[in-house]
């Protein structure tokens, strides 16, 4: 029987656990603080940011959203980040991506104090991850690891194939699985014989942005299939990078879209914001 991995339920369970940690922090006089910077008026980004705000409020985390026009200069944006870097009550800072084309994403990420970089995108946190040191980890791959744990899927000794090499998903995902003793391969748009490779995976993580590109022929029977895609099909319906209906019957476990990986992203952000506040409270 194939297990459908429920990200909504897992995220809700983790949020219930997190409530106790927030309460304990507040009893000690520390309120976790999250600052979210939203540049421009991308409608999807606006929704994600509103959801982050709501989730923080539900948990009793202080959050502030700094909404800036898409005409803002890179220097002014960095000034704003510097102000937040120096605000002691703010534990986590994130800049919602994507940014307008005139702003250099790398320069912005690099301006965030690595110890407040709650997205885990700063090179210091990337270095910590790849050297298996404690640090903040990008929310989506962090959330995928929480899903694997919740469903008792142990990566140790498994062959993991990740399709996609982005800084936000593919690369950190590879490091996390490697740190949990999987044998990891990263595939990408120039990988030869891609589906021959994906067919060798015990754990297949797909983050390509190509609707339903993974069919049953690309999956090993019994594989765990994690779909990070959020694409639109010909009817404008939200679908993943995996053809769920075709792949589910042969997988041992699979994430749906929506309701799989997506809900774990914001839950992971909250978990890591609280962890940063705990570090502040512990001096
Ligand atoms: N600074 C960041 N920017 C972006 C990140 C990020 O982690 N940090 N990730 C994405 C956007 N994102 C959060 O920011 C995000 C994406 C998707 C979901 C989600 O819950 N998806 C649902 C479906 C939602 C829908 O119906 O459209 C799901 O898959 O079930 C949450 C957060 C890019 N930018
Ligand atoms: Mg999903």
Automatic annotation (TrEMBL):
The keyword Oxidoreductase applies. SUPFAM superfamilies: Aminoacid dehydrogenase-like, N-terminal domain (SSF53223), NAD(P)-binding Rossmann-fold domains (SSF51735). Residues 5-119 form the Tetrahydrofolate dehydrogenase/cyclohydrolase catalytic domain. Pathway: One-carbon metabolism; tetrahydrofolate interconversion. It holds the Pfam family THF_DHG_CYH. GO terms for biological process: L-histidine biosynthetic process; methionine biosynthetic process; purine nucleotide biosynthetic process; tetrahydrofolate interconversion. GO terms for cellular component: cytosol. Its EC number is 1.5.1.5, 3.5.4.9. It catalyses: (6R)-5,10-methylene-5,6,7,8-tetrahydrofolate + NADP(+) = (6R)-5,10-methenyltetrahydrofolate + NADPH; (6R)-5,10-methenyltetrahydrofolate + H2O = (6R)-10-formyltetrahydrofolate + H(+). Belongs to the tetrahydrofolate dehydrogenase/cyclohydrolase family. This is Bifunctional protein FolD. NADP(+) binds at residues 164-166. Catalyzes the oxidation of 5,10-methylenetetrahydrofolate to 5,10-methenyltetrahydrofolate and then the hydrolysis of 5,10-methenyltetrahydrofolate to 10-formyltetrahydrofolate. NCBIfam families: PRK14186.1. InterPro entries: Aminoacid_DH-like_N_sf, NAD(P)-bd_dom_sf, THF_DH/CycHdrlase, THF_DH/CycHdrlase_cat_dom, THF_DH/CycHdrlase_CS, THF_DH/CycHdrlase_NAD-bd_dom. It comes from Lacticaseibacillus saniviri JCM 17471 = DSM 24301.
